[in-house]
Specification:
The protein is an alpha+beta fold. Among the domains are: 121 residues, no CATH class; 42 residues, no CATH class. Helices cover 51% and strands 15% of the residues. The chain contains eleven helices and eight strands. The protein has a six-stranded antiparallel beta sheet with strand order 1-2-8-5-4-3. A two-stranded antiparallel ribbon has the order 6-7. The longest helix has 23 residues. It is elongated, with a radius of gyration of 25 Å.
Amino acid sequence: MRRKMILFVILSLMGVTSSSAGDLLAPIYPGAVSFGSDRPGHFLTKDSFEQVKKFYAGDKGPATSEKNHKELGRSVFFQYMSAADVHKYDPVGSAIGVHVTVKSTEMLAGEPESSLPVVGDILGRIKMLMMRQNNPNMDAYHKLVNQYRHLSGWYFPLSDKRDASGRLMSMDKVVVALCEQGPSEETSRHAMEAMTKKAEDLMMQGRQREALEILQNVGQAAQNEYARATGSDGIEKWKACLEQLKEHGYPTQIEIALDPSHRSSQSN
């Protein structure tokens, strides 16, 4: 599973952006990764809002504006081109530059299973599995909630993988999909399908006794797999999934405007 995840990350981050760094109005924050190939100028970083703000203040000077919205989160804007200059290339354009944003922590309040996208779903699965055990350790569950709750406020870059509707999937969705159907689940499914097919062939040959024995083995294998998936192994699998989300998520988003003079010269 880890190899597949690494592959998706490499594909999603190849070619930092569809536009070169020279097409951007401002420097790319050191170590930032592309949000996705179809989002030129959008980057993500593991560094904090304050660290990124300090970098662009050092490059451009004091921020043009800053907001701290209870529900939407924090944002800061550094103007790199005034509206008057933008109007030379776009008559209805406004001032452009760099926006740095982080999501609000207010959205992380409440019951995690219902209020936290993706992360809440995983925590809900873990809680359900823990409740199946004798003397469930709910203190351990609440510790997990406190440890990973913040990931719902992070950004996840796009991968090259598409969903059923053809849209690019973000890495959090890819991670969960791989956790749901990882290598061990895939191996078990293929093995049971092969055994079932063999039993069907034996039935066609009139070898019912042998076919029945195989089908009994298939049933036992299915029970064993269910017990594994709903027991301590299942809990550990979803804990590992939370760690994968942490690895592939980023708390801070940076949007750097494209230089309109470059677009203008390219169209001529």
